[in-house]
Amino acid sequence: MKSKGIRKVLADNAGFFFILPWLIGFILFKVYPFASSLYYSFTNYDLFNGISKTGMMNYNKIFTDSDIKKAFFVTFKYAIFDVPLKLMFALFIAYILNFKLKGVNFFRTAYYVPSILGGSIAIAILWRAVFNTDGLINAVLGVFGVEKINWMASGGGALTVIVLLRVWQFGSAMVIFLAALKGVSEDLYEAASIDGAGKWTQFFKITVPLITPVIFYNLITQLCQAFQEFNGPFLVTKGGPNGATTLISILIYNNAFLRHKMGMASAQAWILFLIVMTFTVVAFVSQKKWVYYSDEDGR
Amino acid sequence: MKKIKQWAAMGLATAMAVSLSACGGGKSTSETAASTAAETTSAAASEATTEATTSGEPVELKFSWWGGDSRHAATEEAIKAFEAKYPNIKVTPEYGAWTGWEEKQSLNILGGNAADVMQINWNWIESYSQGGTAFANLEDYSDVLDLKQFTPESLDLCKVDNKLMAVPISLTGRVFYWNKTAFEEVGCDIPTDLDSLYAAGAAFKAKDPDMYPLALGEYDRMILMVYYLESKYGKNWVEGGEVNYTEDEVKDGMDFITELETKHVIPTLATIQGDMADSLDKNAKWIDGKYAGIFEWDSSASKFMAALEGSVNKPGQKFVVGEFVKMGDNNGGFTKISMAYAVAGNSKHPKEAAMLINFLLNDEEGVKIVSTERGIPCSTEGLKILEANKLGDPLTIEANTKVMNYSKFNLDSKFEHNDLKANPDGVYYKVFGKLSTGEIDSKQAASELIKGITETLES
User: Fold this and answer.
1) N or C end of chain B: which has fewer CB within 10 A?
2) B274, A228: Cβ pair inside 8 Å?
3) A-chain residues near B17 (CB < 8 A)
4) Is the predicted pLDDT of residue B77 greater than 70, yes or no?
5) Contacting residues for B387 by C-beta, under 8 A, at least 6 apart
6) Optimal mutation site among A34, A48, A64, A227, interface B, most CBs of chain B within 10 A
7) Could B269 and A249 be called an inter-chain contact, meaning their C-beta atoms sit closer than 8 Å?
8) Rounded to whole angstroms, how far apart are CA atoms A214 and A90?
9) Could you tell me what percent of chain A has a pLDDT over 90?
């Protein structure tokens, strides 16, 4: 009788037991750190000295320290330039690679390769070789009589260097766009061309509206990644010159792992999270106006 | 339903944002030993005996250090010799480059996973000793570790709560080094005082605007400024836990650094950063003689020399140790313990770990193998062995002798605190970065520097 009851409980909750391993992992490695970091953000938690003070001191410092505010501003600037540039570039290349060209598979692979390389040391060395004052870019410019550019002489130049590094790694967004472009029916283009629509009109009036869900998806993922960017500035510019490429992730890293000030690092991470969250919410709310889901009443 | 879907999607996106990791998976820098034992070591192995200082039971030790290739090779060889002398002790090395090393080791110390024997930076004693518990009290093992070979003053610098947390390996200080070939090419003398330093700036500029007699990063600027102030005012930088200089005096130091830039003695920080080199010794302009001088620790200069001598574009350049550039009535500069050996507080074999330290610092065989890979030894016996056998890098010996005879000021243990010297958000980096770009003037820089240091000293 008892074993029958247990079997029934097991049968009724089979789904729950299937997801239990994931659930345990999620609670232990996501929910717990998430909640504890919120608590730590209101303390002066130091890995070596523990907690001796609680309160708003970390948040007060974040909102009053000009260098921390600058890091948030630089992160914001980085994301604002990086995300649209990357999406436009990925869409542009995907659009070209969607044509029936000779050797198109080779080009698709070639354009995807930089994404696989990621933010590695090798790429940092490559980027430095390209952008240093005696580097490849200046050598090419020199052929045309253009004076050497010190990319690190200004904040804008240095930020451009690390933005271009991520834009160059557009492969994953490109592949997703390519899949979406393949899903657009040829009939629509055919009908449009009969009506006299040119390639640009077709692109903006047919292609873009039909792939807006994918643009939306790429926008959200790229936004999240851009705000959390670390490798590029850490490896290539080391946050310089004069803090011009010091993204907030570098401050979080230094506070957490170099100074062991987990309280401050948690507070900075939470502010970053809220910023990403805000942008995500804005994107979701605004999608009513620009994202077209063809399976839901024409929307 | 649509709303639920949208909110569910938003929830998933949030979870995704939380889950995304900014950092790529790190690779362990530790490596297991590659055997490069000397023939003498294997010969010694056959005669090895287990000394009475160990129980004879098999013991496994872990030994961690950072450094360059030559230090790795010498230390591995020394380990082989140690294992040959004490066959019951097996030592597993764990080593890597400096970049990221402190982050990894500090977390190891905190998590109780530190190696039994650690090469540590002097400021780690204060930062990571956790009130004297993270490292073993080495006075407890003075029967196997000969502490009489070290001056009481140097040992006192390694104590916390009256416990000896580490033994000093070597003392170091900053010295001027020059590319003699570049100076000859420009046709000016190697600087010995401020006037000749400024004259060199003008001469280098006249020869080639891309050439500079000296190159200094942010932290180098801080050390040179302190050297200048000590030379001029004759006071320690920090005294009694406070900055020992007035804001006007520090402003004078900041003006000095700015003057070095304006007189073409040093490139601006933007120029150095534009070279996009990992460090100055890897900078093509240093390697090819465009930057002709450095102000560097005597224990670190060999890599600059190797880089210069390895130049493909400009072979045959000569790297020399300079005289101290006179900047006032006093001999500026400080010396510090460059590094030390410590034993983990939770080591299961602290006695054997102390024996390994003794072997590396005081034992003839160990000292001969390691030589000056970690600078000129603090150990009297170690130094005697090197001198008797005419061992060690002559350049390191020359530079160390000069700095030890010249620089007499004290260094505060928090001078190298990560709140101050971390890149890019340490106080030194921020202040000198802003000063170089003109974002702040020398008065503001002085005020910001004193404020930042005071906060660190009080923390």
Assistant:
1) N
2) no
3) 224, 273, 276-277, 280
4) yes
5) none
6) A48
7) no
8) 12
9) 74
* pLDDT mean over A63-92: 95
pLDDT of B51 above 80: no
pLDDT at B30 over 70: no
pLDDT given at position A297: 54
Structural domains of chain A ordered from first start: 61-298 (1.10.3720.10)
CATH code at B29-172+336-406? 3.40.190.10
ipTM rounded to 2 decimals:
0.86
- What average pLDDT does this structure show over B126-144? 94
* Among the partner residues B9, B13, B439, nearest to A242 by beta-carbon distance: B439
By the 10 Å C-beta count (0-12 exposed, 13-18 middle, 19+ buried), B315 is classed as: exposed
Is residue A72 very low, low, confident or very high in pLDDT (cuts 50, 70, 90)? Answer: very high
Q: What is the pTM of this model?
A: 0.85
User: Which residues in chain B touch residue A236, judged by CB atoms under 8 angstroms apart?
Assistant: 276
Are A41 and A266 a contacting pair, CB within 8 Å? yes
**Which residue ranges make up each domain of chain B?**
29-172+336-406, 173-334+410-458
Assign residue B118 a region (left: φ > 0; alpha: ψ between -120 and 50; beta: otherwise): beta
Q: Which long-range contacts (CB under 8 A, 24 or more apart) does B152-161 make?
A: B154/B337, B154/B378, B157/B122, B157/B337, B157/B413, B158/B122, B158/B125, B158/B337, B158/B340, B160/B125, B160/B126, B160/B129, B160/B131, B160/B132, B161/B131, B161/B132
* Tokens describing residue B75: 């230390």
Q: Which CATH superfamily is domain B173-334+410-458 in?
A: Periplasmic binding protein-like II (3.40.190.10)
Q: Is there a shared CATH topology between the B29-172+336-406 domain and the B173-334+410-458 domain?
A: yes
Question: In Å, how far is B206's CA from the nearest CA of chain A?
Answer: 20
Distance (Å) from the C-alpha of residue B387 to the closest C-alpha of chain A? 39
Phi and psi dihedrals of B168, rounded to 5? -70, 140
Q: Tell me the per-residue pLDDT of B398-419, one tens digit each, with 9 for 90 and over.
A: 999 999 999 989 899 899 999 9
